[in-house]
Specification:
By secondary structure, the chain is of the alpha+beta class. The chain has one domain: Gcn5-related N-acetyltransferase (GNAT) (Aminopeptidase). Helices cover about 30% and strands about 35% of the residues. It is built from five helices and seven strands; from the N terminus they run βαααβββαβαββ. A seven-stranded mixed sheet has the order 1-2-3-4-5-7-6, with helices on both faces. Helix 1 packs across helix 3. The longest helix has 17 residues. The relative contact order is 0.15.
């Protein structure tokens, strides 16, 4: 999985590989994400989720992508909460990389590709992201891609049985 990294719009056929990664990596992602329902780990549950993402993409509110290495799905990158209005033009970036492909630079390259989508395809001015305070690898990915922290969202997400703070990140894309 050391090959080149690229992203593309998610497709219904991505359901099975995503479900396989998420099933295998459930424990690894537990500290960073809310507990998903059981169907999240099935190809059928992922297919339903992908259908909803593609409907939101058609509406212009989400750009849902997959991360590929050697043409294999190894993760996802999503630009959500897209506000294309001339006075706003922003979106929120989220991503994950399967554990079998971590620590190989894929997350950083996927985020760089997503920033180009935000600028070139979506015409956005501002990229936003958030990380858990303890998620130092994700913070390094954002920093390397020109993001700066700008605040803390106190008690903003319920994870692993308790409310946790989130670190808020921004990057101005026109710069």
């Amino acid at each position: 999985m050391h090959g080149s990294t690229r992203i593309r719009l998610i497709e219904p056929t991505d359901a099975a590989p995503i479900a396989a990664h998420r099933t295998r990596d459930a424990e690894a992602f537990r500290p960073w994400e809310p507990t998903p329902p059981p169907e999240f780990f099935t190809p059928e549950g992922q297919a339903e989720r992908i259908d909803k993402l593609l409907v939101a993409h058609q509406a212009g509110t989400v750009w849902p992508g997959v991360v590929l290495a050697d043409n294999q799905v190894i993760g996802q990158v999503t630009i959500a909460s897209i506000l294309p209005q001339p006075h706003l033009r922003r979106g929120s970036l989220g991503y994950w990389i399967a554990t079998v492909a971590q620590n190989q630079g894929h997350a950083g390259r996927a985020v760089a590709h997503a920033l180009r989508v935000m600028t070139d395809e979506l015409g956005l001015h501002r990229a936003e992201a958030s990380t858990n305070m303890e998620n130092l690898p994700s913070q390094r990915v954002l920093r390397r891609n020109g993001f700066s922290p700008y605040g803390v969202a106190h008690s903003s997400i319920f994870l692993d049985g308790q409310w946790r703070d989130g670190l808020l990140w921004e990057r101005i894309l026109d710069d």
